[in-house]
Amino acid sequence: MIRQNRQEEKTLICDGCHLSAVPREGIWIALTEDRMAHYSQFITDYEMIRAAEGRGGQNADYYLALPYKDLSGKNQAQWTIRARTYSYLAKQILPKIQAEVGVNARVLDVGAGNGWMSYRFSQMGLRPVAVDLLVNDQDGLGAAKHYQEHLQEMFPRVQAESTRLPFASAQFDAVFFNASFHYAESYEASLREALRCLRISGTIVVADSPWYSNKSSGELMIAERQAAFLKRFGTSSDSIRSLEFLTDERLRDLEHKFGIRWERHNPFYGFPWTMRPWIASWNRRREPSRFQIYTARKPA
């Protein structure tokens, strides 16, 4: 889908849509000026909030330890969830993909952040491509530079949006949304684009996106989150209307629209996490979010 421009050796041009991508410090920039403007305030707010939360580290050791340990000590509870999710993926889902298409399966990591999962994929012999909107050196694709000397070949990094991926159709064996699908403005648009990039019978994986049994609980979560952000950071961080959560209704709607069938996986996140819904109900509080992994095959 993308070819090299003969007149400009450092620019890639899409044969189909004429979208260009230029390299900048090892990252292919595939956002058009208008889409960059669309996401500008979101990126500014998101980077500010993530920095205040202590995301990122001062040296390579921090990134190499992810997701199993947060050496900063600032977000260990969240990384514990990420670690258990990844352990499940590595033991239960990735081996099936590799058994079907080979050890060197091509995978797309959408919403890759600092690239820790693409790094882990590379260690397993997979061929990942990391995609994200953020490119900073602390929490975005720029931070993946810490992995380069630990890999025989650095995985490609691309700044792009999930609804306009600069890749050929049917190019990947699997597409992963890890802690990122809920940032979509449209689940339908993001899933349609992911399926386009996926080969027939390839696997879509959605992990670590909040799930609620009903829409009202998710809407309450959004309102609480925006109020907390406004009080702490001076912004409600709602310049982009991300959907923020999943429900069974939303998942069924995607099944019907794309002819897919979700398979649910339930990693064990520990006894305290399992008890959260019961404790919330007992105390008459809002339903807490829950995490599951969803996989689906691209239909013929």
Automatic annotation (TrEMBL):
Carries keyword Calcium? Answer: no
Which superkingdom?
Bacteria
Report domain Methyltransferase type positions.
Answer: 108-206
**Pfam families in the record, alphabetically?**
Methyltransf_11
Q: What is its EC number?
A: 2.1.1.-
For this entry, list what GO says about its biological process: methylation
Q: Transport among the record's keywords?
A: no
A Gene Ontology molecular function term of the record: S-adenosylmethionine-dependent methyltransferase activity
UniProtKB keywords: Methyltransferase, Transferase
- Put simply, this protein is called Class I SAM-dependent methyltransferase
Which species is this UniProt entry from? Answer: Tunturiibacter empetritectus
